[in-house]
Write the structure tokens for this entry.
Amino acid sequence: MTQLQTRLPDLELRWLGGHRGLEADIVPAADLSLDRLWLRSLRSVDASINTILDPLRLAASVPQAIVKLLRWRPDVIYTTGGYVAIPVLAAAALLRIPALLWEGNQVPGRSVRLSARLATARAVSYPATRQHLPAPTFVTGTPIRDLESGDPAAARARLDLPADVPVLLLFGGSQSVRRLNEAMADAIADLVERCTVVHITGPSAIVEAEVLRASLPVAQQARYRPYAFLHEDMDAALIAADLLVGRAGSSTLAEAAAAGLPMIVVPYPHAAAHQKANAAEMVEAGAAQLVDDGDLDGDTLRQACDLLFDARLAEMSAAAREVGRPGSALASVRLLETLASRGPLPTQEELDAATREVTGT
């Protein structure tokens, strides 16, 4: 969004989504206009009254989307695909409004594969994803905030972290990860003897983490920093850290790579194991070590702490930067500008060059 607003200061942005989800809070907080369709995001397949109502909501949302797009007359649509995007992309196709769909996972889900055919063009994070989607599909990487220009010393000062102690960052993604939190409880006494731990717990586990912190000797409590979320300070945490232990979501991997941050990556074991596929590029490049979810325990975190003092850490950091695409947002913006102007699409080589540029440029 920052890239769009920087390049097109008169741009009008509108967010169209479904009911249920974080967007009801996040989008207005970002000072964006939010409209919602009747359909809901799908989170389970359990039989209920919604098994009948959801297809009806989906069907009703198509004419609803048509009316909204006719009223707004957007130049271009950007979507991450999936179930909620289906009526919007169907309406856009009927009204001949160009649309760019972005898919961050290496193996797209069924809803994305279905809705992708309605988009004008597609952008993906991984080259292997192109085999699952129709042409034209471009590799742009995952749009992220600017991390390459960050100063680790300034980031540590911003979070009030010691300047002379290695920093281990634990982040389970948008949801609390109980297995990660339990491993932390087992290992914390050993970890704070050797490093500072920044632990993003998720809102459901923050009270438990605060109790854990209070159980430490007073002299060690400053070495354990639990947060429910970091929001605006997440960039500082990524820049300040020396090693990240976390899930293999597309954004997490992309930001770690751009920051040159080595990872102990613990893929979410469900959802067709798509996170394990996401992690493959960083693991194969030597930028990350993979730990299966079932093997994550206190010993995993103790070994991660050992890595903070190992010469391999610098090699992993260099490998992370090699696979990073800090200019992914710029590449996506160039695709959107081209679609909006109905001009010829850029080549993959031109987009590759854009993805290597620093996001803030």
Observations:
- The chain has a mean pLDDT of 89.
